[in-house]
Amino acid sequence: MPETGCRDTPILKQRGQHEVFCGLTGIIWLHRKMQDAFFLVVGSRTCAHLLQSAAGVMIFAEPRFGTAILEETDLAGLKDAQDELERVVTDLLARRSDIRQLFLVGSCPSEVIKLDLGRAAEKLSARHAPKVRVLNYSGSGIETTFTEGEDACLAAMVPVLPNTDQRQLMLVGALPDVVEDQALDLLAKLGIENVSVLPARTLDSGIAVGPNTVFALTQPFLGGTHAALERRGARHIPAPFPFGEEGTTAWLWAVAREFGVEQACFDAVTDAPRARARHAVAKAASTLSGKSIFFFPDSQLEIPLARFLTRECGMHAIEVSAPFIHKGIVGPDLDLLAEGPTIAEGQDVDLQLERCRASRPDLTVCGLGLANPLEAEGLATKWAIELVFSPVHFYEQAGDLAGLFSRPLRRRDMLKLEAAE
């Protein structure tokens, strides 16, 4: 533990022009996670092009998402958009009998014309129950960041979960299947039983919630889901997030303490994977040690990642910015982040670019829209969105996570050598 962490550090709050990526992109990993779900975006052709481009879906593939296109007549109010939407959903469900959960996803166009997707979801859910459950959430990029799409989706699921009085642990946050399996295996070896996951892979998983449910977040951007679960009576287990060896160990130990796991049992289960994680991180840390890093606000992973990079990889954080800072969620990571960096919430992108250029960090973590211009100015960058798409949680991915940050620096060094030759 540092003598003084950053939990009580004054937060620089700025509001102005900001650079964000659309929340609809959360569908790209959610549709792979929930195997019986379909995400129907109610939006424009631009929304459809974004999803197809970002997901890299081939034209002849039939994924578990699509777009109900709002035409000019819908936007002008010349047609009843609710009737049109019900027709599209009926046709979709008739063609895709495998759909058990249907999400109506709001977009910028549907929000601008005030299309009531909540009412549409209620009517359609009543019509198609019990075979299909229809929910809605907003993935609009207006005043939001791209990871809020997942948060809104999971928060929409919580109110309709069945009640339970069983003592149980719920893991909350979408992880790649292989990473989720690793986490469940570690918990099973610790003797923790009755573990559920939100989002579950299928509707029939039996996931429920109640006053004897405790939940551990695996993603730091789930503020709305956190609040929704607490409204259902569940209790949060605060912990650093499972990035790197230290973060994973602290996260697991917080859960283990909650369920009365003895220290000797905990050490027996975690000693070997901890050693592997430390060894894997050390390979990348040799490139990262002593280097400076600057975080623009983008994914809401910034604070846990800064903790990992400074404590386990030897980096120096100049500024750590996040779109939102929920101390009930990232407080444990702030406790471990040594005092020194500027902690910022929100963004005035022009002012932040000035601070970044003045500090000349060795590595800048930012969104796609800023990366190329900063690279052209001679700054090495890492795309924030890649950290959400890649498997980076828990022990076995610790080395891969460190490698995501070391590769841009190694690439920069190689380019310098080639230029010198």
TrEMBL record:
Residues where [4Fe-4S] cluster binds:
C22, C47, C108
The record's listing under SUPFAM superfamilies reads: Helical backbone' metal receptor (SSF53807)
Question: What InterPro entries has UniProt attached to this entry?
Answer: LIPOR_BchN/ChlN, Nase/OxRdtase_comp1, Protochl_reductN
The UniProt keyword set, sorted, is:
4Fe-4S, ATP-binding, Bacteriochlorophyll biosynthesis, Chlorophyll biosynthesis, Iron, Iron-sulfur, Metal-binding, Nucleotide-binding, Oxidoreductase, Photosynthesis
Gene Ontology terms, MF aspect: oxidoreductase activity
Pathway this chain belongs to: Porphyrin-containing compound metabolism; bacteriochlorophyll biosynthesis (light-independent)
Q: Which cofactor does it need?
A: [4Fe-4S] cluster
Q: What class of enzyme is it?
A: oxidoreductase
**EC number from the UniProt entry:** 1.3.7.7
Give the protein's function: Component of the dark-operative protochlorophyllide reductase (DPOR) that uses Mg-ATP and reduced ferredoxin to reduce ring D of protochlorophyllide (Pchlide) to form chlorophyllide a (Chlide). This reaction is light-independent. The NB-protein (BchN-BchB) is the catalytic component of the complex.
Spell out the family assignment given in the record's similarity comment: Belongs to the BchN/ChlN family.
What PANTHER family does the database record attribute to this sequence? Answer: LIGHT-INDEPENDENT PROTOCHLOROPHYLLIDE REDUCTASE SUBUNIT N (PTHR39429)
Protein name, entry field: Light-independent protochlorophyllide reductase subunit N
Species source reads: Sedimentitalea todarodis
